[in-house]
Amino acid sequence: MKKKKFSAGIFWVYLLLSLWALTTIYPIIWVVQNSFKAKDKILADSFALPTGELFSLANYRKAFQNIDILGAYRNSIFISVMVALLVIVFAGMAAYALSRYRFRGSKMLYSFVVAGMMFPVFATIIPVFAMEFKWGIANTDNWWLTMLSVILPQVAGNLSFAIVVLSGYIKSLPLELEEAAYMEGCSAYQIYFKVVMPLTKPSFATVAIFAFLWSYNDLFTQMFFLKRPEMFGITTLLNQLTSQEGTNYGLMAAAVTLVAVPVIVVYIFLQKYIIRGMTAGAVKG
Amino acid sequence: MSSNIYRDKKPVFVFLIPAFLFMAVYLYYPFFRNIINSFRQIKQLGSPGIGWNNPWYANYVEMLYDDIVWISLKNTLIMMAVTILGQVGIAVVLALMVDNIRHGRQFYKTVFFFPIVISATALGLLFNLIFLYDKGMINQILESLGKTTLTDWKAEGIALVTMMLPVMWQYVGFYFVILVTGLNNIPDELYEAARIDGASTWQKVRYISIPLLHNVICTCCVLAVTGALKVFDLPWVMFPKGMPLKTTFLTGTYMYYHTTQTKNVDYGSALAVLIVVLGIVLSKVVNRIFKEKDY
Fold first, then answer.
1. Which of B32, B103, B118 would best serve as a mutation to test chain A binding (most A beta carbons within 10 A)?
2. Start and end residues for every CATH 1.10.3720.10 domain found in chain A
3. What is the residue-averaged pLDDT of chain A?
């Protein structure tokens, strides 16, 4: 490949790659530019840029007046941050115990973890709802309890994956540092929190990003637990919006923009970690 | 592990209890409870039910005679074919192409992957606008190419295509990244040797890249099959309640429909059991077909 001239074959390769890139980028550009056009003009000539007469902020004004998009952001980010935190705390400890201690049944416990990845959320959601309803945390008008009712099942849904990825990483760490700490008189807990956890940081980041995005983008679980408008997360809000105002295309375009653009900005800065986080489970096999 | 640190086993339980308690309460118990629920009569989400079905397996008999179960099974199988052929297929082609260029690899990786980061719900809204009957993006493009009539992309017959294209499109980048990682693991010496022997680019792809990628492609296919069973958000946003005329249900959306809309919660549970069985059977089949090979 080194000193080949720019051949016709390579030209076609670039062309095809760029065509696919166009299908991923252009829809977003299209919806953003149309979100800045007045409701009645929006789709008349949808490929035109929103300049001059076409430009309007009416859709955004309506979006902020009619729907509580900031509230939805607050709820979603709170849920997802808590899910990511709890997952790394619980999964980290379990992964450490499973990869360092040898005890009877450790193999079996690990296979329970792996089997946990196979349970589709469809198969657990109804009993989980019934259970939380009986405890009085699901379907209440208390904000904290409602958030908790979503956080708990989402944590459980991510634990298996997180334990598998983290144990793989912890197993690859050298034992010498832990031994040194032990010589200094550290207990197992101190060794974990002061030696192992800091070393596992890259893997924790991967798992946290995966859990955060999974929870942030999930609609299914949230539809069961977030039923009141003031409790809506981003995905439940969008779903509600489609069924109520699906024909107000300007508002739809503005809502998509408000939801997608911040995520894209974050993605551009953190893409290395995000790509690693999302594909970690697959590459580990 | 020869070290003395881990002789004392007491801390093990402290480390393990939170995670395993969570999994027992939120995964294992509900999973088995759900199987029991599928034999009971439950009219209200959240209630334990009002007794057993008569006969106890009534839901499973009903499934056999429920046309929509068969439609949703058929759609789910089509979805799997689409994910294997469309997602993994396109991803293989794109990955092999990116592997053979020198400039812009990182750019393509970033751009191809990014739809995965956006929630399927938001993409559902986006594609609703793109496939709009009057002046959606697709119809406008077709119009400018000289087509005179508008296509109703949500009409019966074509609705399934409209639903599956975005799902396929979203995850191509995911398999692309996995495959590119696989290609990077192929040692350069092999290509070097082939070059000295006078192999063309196409021959290198055909006789080195593709055979050595075999196992990675298998992993992707297994993931695509299990992924297809989990598809829910985008179809539900674009085609709620299986519209038009309940022809676009997937097993997951049909399960949700019965659980929340028809007050037939126990039937929803039975459908969830069906999804589990389907998942186990199909991943066994896929593993059998794409057996891993050693080179």
1. B118
2. 67-245
3. 85
